Amino acid sequence: MIQRVKNFLKIAYDSNTDPYIALLQYRNAPLSGLDFSPAQLLMSRFLRIKLPTTSQNLHPKVVDARDNLVYRQQQQQKYYDRKSKPLSSLNKGDVVRMNYNETWKRGIVRFKHQASRSYIVDTEDGSTLTRNRRDLIYTTKKYFKYFLKMCVGMISSKHVLDGESSIIFTRSFSVISRNDSNTTFGDCLSFDKKVEIPDDLTE
Fold first, then answer.
1. From which domain of life does this come (predicted)?
2. What pLDDT is recorded for position 187?
């Protein structure tokens, strides 16, 4: 609409005519999809212009453009969403990628946020973020092994992995031994259920 008004003013300036006449005629022209002019929507009547008309057309008459407006919006949504489809929901423990500070980071879904289509995600640097579903890209399981390797590197160097006893993650950002559930070795990831690290990651 702004560009249209600019064109009116430019044409009026080039033709050395009154720009307000062009704006007056535009206010009196029906809008596409509504069948009512801006003057009818605002003042419930046509405006007097240079074109001849009857006095009955200038009498106020309340118009209801709500149905036409809703129909036009539905048509616009229909064509806008023609090639779109809803994204699949994420589950707890799913590995995802997200754009954070112009870099792609891996993360694990902790749980679904109360807001619609939002999730709480634990990132690989230990931070917790809230992201919309459209900002999260589901990562296949082959990246999960790499992610667990990264977590193993966060464990204290005093803990020796002998390959015989695996370690597991708990839901409270702690990494514990399978044999000693009271021993905490460091902060890592959050799971609702304990997830065992494969033995090949301890090599």
1. Eukaryota
2. 38
Q: Where in the chain is the domain with CATH 2.30.30?
A: 95-139
Residue type, 88: S
Q: How far is it, in rounded angstroms, from Cα 178 to Cα 127?
A: 26
Strands (E), 50-135: 95-100, 103-112, 118-123, 128-132
115 DSSP 8-state letter = S
| Structure tokens belonging to residue 30 | 């029906």
CB atoms within 10 A of CB 45: 16
Question: Facing residues of 104 across strands?
Answer: 99
Q: Mind listing the pLDDT tens digit for each residue in 15-62?
A: 988 888 888 888 888 887 788 888 888 888 888 888 888 888 788 888
3-state secondary structure of 10: helix
CA 36 to chain centre: 34
| Identity of the residue numbered 35 | D
* pTM reported for the whole predicted model: 0.41
Residue 145 CA: distances (Å) to CA of 39, 104, 142, 197, 201: 65, 18, 6, 8, 8
Q: What mean pLDDT is reported for the chain?
A: 71
Provide the 10 A C-beta neighbour count for residue 11: 12
Fold of domain 95-139: SH3 type barrels. (2.30.30)
Q: Strands (DSSP E) along 25-154, which ranges?
A: 95-100, 103-112, 118-123, 128-132, 136-138
